[in-house]
Specification:
Elements (H helix, E strand, L loop, with lengths): L5 H8 L3 H8 L7 H13 L21 E7 L5 H15 L4 E7 L11 H4 L5 E5 L4 H9 L4 E4 L13 E5 L2 H13 L5 E4 L6 H16 L19 H11 L6 E4 L2 H13 L9 E3 L15 E4 L1 H17 L7 E4 L1 E4 L10
Parallel strand pairs: 1-2, 1-3, 3-4, 4-5, 5-10, 6-7, 7-8
Antiparallel strand pairs: 9-11
Helix pairs in contact: 1-2, 1-3, 4-11, 7-8, 9-10
């Protein structure tokens, strides 16, 4: 017997999938008469109701609210765990159940989302560290209210069908680049896959804008902005350095992880930092000792977690309000890698 889905129930009644989802997830906005018709049709079709759903439940107020945090590769950095902890802390104050859902970083053509996200038991989804286009589009197609932390450039905000939260990127990187120009640096390189994440692309935009405003051009030969393998950063950045026509005065990197690898490779080549080459990162990484001297941009993880939690609660309550793109302020920290004492 084929699985009975929300879409099949919706088709049989001539209603939208979202309307059926609202009934089984205890959301408001469906009349009592239509609600009863949907439940009766589901029973007739032998639909397997979510565990926490009772066909006799009258309203959302009697149902617990379940919010999923769907995340790829959270183990790669405490950056993600700090945000998740803050989300859990905030949601607990609202008596909301947090459901942790692990997602793969890449998927096959026949991949389907975990049942916990599709069976009607989840009322909202917070999506983090997901940059695979197919996976993002599957999530975007879900009728469940959603808030994304960043996205791929392949899936712009207008196609997410949810809210988008980002760190402030352009101004921070422009500030660092302009600071280096003021200190006499004239040739610049940028390292980081600018199409992997919207945040990376915005950082490159801030970098390019600062150069343009000071009459300097972006030299493609000094930039590594193409895709970089998850496990081959060191090898690919090293190969890139070997192809440079000359060593630039400064490198601006998309994040601290890239900057620390670059710093290690430059030092190994006998290049003095910052005397010969200045460099910067982003994220204020605390996991690599090399980052202690790295000019960077501090991202306020707790503020991000707090904002994600409040936004998904708002989105659940007001599902029809236009989607939002929200920026959380970040802070530039100048350190020794650009020839500064910490500011």
């Amino acid at each position: 017997m084929k699985k009975i889905t929300l879409q099949k129930i919706a088709n049989s009644l001539g209603v939208s999938r979202t309307t059926v989802w609202k009934v089984f997830s205890g959301q408001e906005g469906v009349s009592e008469d239509l609600r009863n018709k949907i439940i009766s049709k589901a029973q007739e079709m032998n639909y397997k109701f979510p565990e926490n759903f009772s066909p006799s439940q009258p309203s959302a107020s009697e149902s617990p609210t379940n919010i999923a945090v769907a995340v790829c590769r959270p183990e790669t950095s405490i950056f993600w765990m700090t945000i998740i902890h803050q989300i859990a802390k905030e949601l607990s104050l609202h008596n909301v159940n947090l459901v942790y859902t692990y997602l793969p970083s890449s998927v096959s053509g026949n991949y389907t989302l975990p049942a916990s996200l599709t069976n009607g038991s989840t009322h909202g989804i917070i999506i983090m560290n997901v940059y695979n286009e197919q996976l993002l589009r599957l999530l975007a197609a879900s009728p469940v209210p959603k808030v994304f932390l960043d996205t791929s450039t392949a899936v712009p905000p207008s196609e997410l069908n949810g809210d988008l939260v980002l760190t402030e990127n352009r101004t921070s990187i422009s500030t660092i680049t302009e600071h280096l120009i003021e200190k006499g640096r004239r040739s610049f390189g940028f390292i980081g896959d600018i199409n992997y994440a919207k945040s990376n692309h915005e950082r490159f935009e801030g970098f390019s804008k600062a150069l343009f405003q000071h009459g300097l051009s972006v030299n493609p030969e000094l930039n590594l902005t193409s895709p970089i393998g998850i496990d081959t950063y060191k090898e690919e950045i090293g190969a890139f350095l070997d192809t440079l026509p000359f060593m630039p005065d400064a490198f601006v990197c998309a994040n601290d992880y890239v900057a620390c690898i670059l710093m290690q490779l430059l030092l190994k080549r006998g290049i003095r930092i910052p005397e010969e080459v200045a460099l910067s990162g982003f994220d204020a990484n605390t996991e690599n000792p090399l980052a202690e001297s790295l000019t960077t941009v501090q991202v306020f993880n707790q503020n991000i977690g707090f904002r994600l939690a409040l936004q998904i609660l708002y989105r659940i309550k007001y599902p029809s309000v236009p989607y939002e793109v929200i920026y959380v302020t970040s802070k530039v920290i100048f350190r020794g890698s650009t020839g500064d004492s910490e500011i």
